[in-house]
Amino acid sequence: MTDDTCIEDIGHKLNLRHLTLADYEDVKKLMDAVYPGLGGAWPKNKFRAQLKVFPDGQICIEDHGVVVAAAFSVIVDYDKFGDQHTYDEITGDAYLTTHDPLGDVLYGVDVFVSPDYRAMRLGRRLYEARKEICQNLNLKSIVAGGRIPKYKDHAKELTPQAYIEKVKRKELYDPILTFQLSNEFEVRRVLKNYLPEDQESHGYATLLEWNNLYYDPEKSPLIGATKTSARIGCVQWQMRAFSSVEELSQQIEFFIDALSDYQCDVALFPEFFNAPLMGIENHATSIAAVKALSEYSVEIVEVISKMAVTYNINVIAGSIPVIENDELFNVSYLCRRDGTIDSQYKLHVTPHEKRAWIMQGGDKLKVFDTDFGRIGILICYDVEFPELGRLLSEQGVQILFVPFWTDTKNGYLRVRCCAQARAIENECYVAIAGSVGNLPKVDGADIQYAQSAVFSPSDFAFPHDAIMAETTPNTEMTLVVDLDLDKLNKLQNEGSVRNYLDRRRDLYKVSWIED
After folding, report:
1. Which CDD domains match (predicted)?
2. Hey, which residues does 324 pair with through a beta bridge?
3. Helix H or strand E segment including 252
4. Dihedral in degrees, nearest 10, Cα atoms 251, 255, 258, 264
């Protein structure tokens, strides 16, 4: 790794937000690329009307300030139109003249994604945001007319109904209908002459619906509301031989994909989860082995950052060795699902890391704001120093993540017991994730012991043993846990004991020296 390499500059910076008039040129460019056979982009006066009539319903995803995906919608009194309608009728020719603030249905006007971003599941993210809007506005459902562009290849032998059934049974693939079905929409009927100029669909469309089961949403922004709960996933990682970064990446993707399917907000990997790559070649010394391992770090973080975006899940990439200015550090990377990357350096390196690897400790303690809460990261040995947890607590950290790597049970118990103490004394949740198995060909990494877990404060609102959940020891598996963040606020003010409020700040404090 060269001195000027910055892993945090790799990748995207995605942001979900409402559209503004200044976005028109980006939207025009997108629509011209996506709809060359349907007339391309809307004129600017139509775009202006959409924003004026219903600004909350027009959303986009930008990457480094450039719009790369967008979704448009309108509220309608659905009974006025019924199931037999055309696109122009129900959308007012996309001018949204049919918008009714007192209506009962959110109608999908359009969704499109830049061809360069279609592998990143941005359409799914826009659909989830639409559902959020629907719920927060207390609307009955989302309804939309969906094109079936691949029908042109089967129109001679299949009716639209038969084609749709084959797509539903996954015997055929349609880029729009397949996507909509995978996003929990159901086909109610076939619409004829819905969009007559759509030659690919022969003018047909599916009438799709997603029902909103919640009618008492909390008062919050339509999208990007502050979460009151978080679902976290911990990976208890099996150490196994890998012959390349590609093989390692496949195993990483397996777990990220699985936790994403469970709609986790974050996936936590263990410390030095990439250690098997030290066994690819024979090395004369432990120092040579770990330096060789650090050469893969940029590639690994780039791969994980792309997965975080693609699977719409934040990933705490355990920790990996990094060389900067000819010095070796142990670094945990937070790869957010918006494409940004942040890092926390291990502050306290163990005697073994100092002796065998000549590893250095970092000099900064960070607090990370995420879309599921305020978090901190302490790498293994760091959690055994209570000052760090206290400093993070003073800055409002709700969840503390601890990737660890221990070889014996007594080493593991040091991490576990200290993590539980940090949860109780700082009134926060603490998640720990470690690796299991063995690496016979890797010096100093031949055995592992772990039991991953999530700990809570100790009071009546939490489990009686202050353990939210834990894995089976020394078995590769995942741990998925829902955390109620509102309980932390209540605990601080109404708990049986109140560590945060009752702290004697008039007598003592913990402070960061350079502050």
Report:
1. NAT_SF, nitrilase_Rim1_like
2. 327
3. helix 245-261
4. -160
Q: Is residue 7 domain-resident? A: no
- Check whether residue 142 and residue 241 sit in a common domain: no
- Residue 217: band (very low, low, confident or very high) from pLDDT cuts 50, 70, 90: very low
Over residues 427-473, the pLDDT tens digits come to: 999 999 999 998 887 776 668 999 999 999 999 999 999 999 999 99
What CA–CA distance (Å, rounded) separates 455 from 428?
A: 9
Compute the distance between CA of residue 281 and CA of residue 309 in angstroms, rounded to an integer.
32
DSSP code per residue over 124-149? HHHHHHHHHHHHHTT-SEEEEEE--G
Q: Please indicate, yes or no, whether residues 180 and 263 belong to a single structural domain of this protein.
A: no
Residue with tokens 């040129």: 25
DSSP class of residue 161 equals: H
Domain with 244 in it: what CATH number?
Answer: 3.60.110.10
Say if residue 302 is in the same domain as residue 415.
yes
For the entire predicted model, the pTM comes to: 0.83
Both tokens of residue 357?
């690897």
Catalytic residue (one of 62, 132, 209, 271):
271
- Residues 139, 240 within the same domain: no
**For residue 274, what is the DSSP state?**
T
- Sequence-ordered list of residues with C-beta below 8 angstroms from that of 380, at least 6 positions apart, any chain: 271, 319, 346, 350, 402, 403, 404, 405, 406, 415
Q: Which structural domain range is residue 141 located in?
A: 14-211
* Long-range contacts of residues 350-353, Cβ cutoff 8 Å, at least 24 apart: 350/380, 350/381, 352/444
Question: Exactly one of 200, 346, 427, 470 is catalytic; which is it?
Answer: 346
Number of folded domains that form the chain: 2
Q: Residue 250 corresponds to which tokens in the numbers above?
A: 């496949």
Catalytic residue check, 166 = no
For residues 62 and 126, give the distance between their C-alpha atoms in angstroms, rounded to a whole number. Answer: 12
Structure tokens at 208: 């799709």
Count of residues for the chain?
515
Q: Are the beta carbons of 513 and 479 closer than 8 angstroms?
A: no
Q: Which amino acid is at 125?
A: R
Looking at the structure, do residues 207 and 235 belong to the same domain, yes or no?
Answer: no
Are 292 and 409 found together in one domain? yes
Report helix, strand or coil for 482. Answer: strand
Residues 134, 264, 335, 380: which is the catalytic one? Answer: 380
Residue 286: alpha-carbon gap to chain centroid: 35
**Burial of 512 from C-beta contacts in 10 A (0-12 / 13-18 / 19+):** exposed
Known catalytic residue at 271: yes
Instruction: Name which of 110, 121, 137, 102 is nearest 50 in CA terms.
Output: 110
Strand order in the sheet with 453-455: 368-370, 373-377, 399-403, 429-433, 453-455, 467-470
pLDDT in tens, 147-179: 999 999 999 999 999 999 999 999 999 999 999
User: Does residue 515 form part of some domain?
Assistant: no
Judge contact between 122 and 113, C-beta under 8 A.
yes
How many Å separate Cα 467 from the centre of its chain? 25
The terminus-to-terminus CA distance of the chain in angstroms comes to: 31
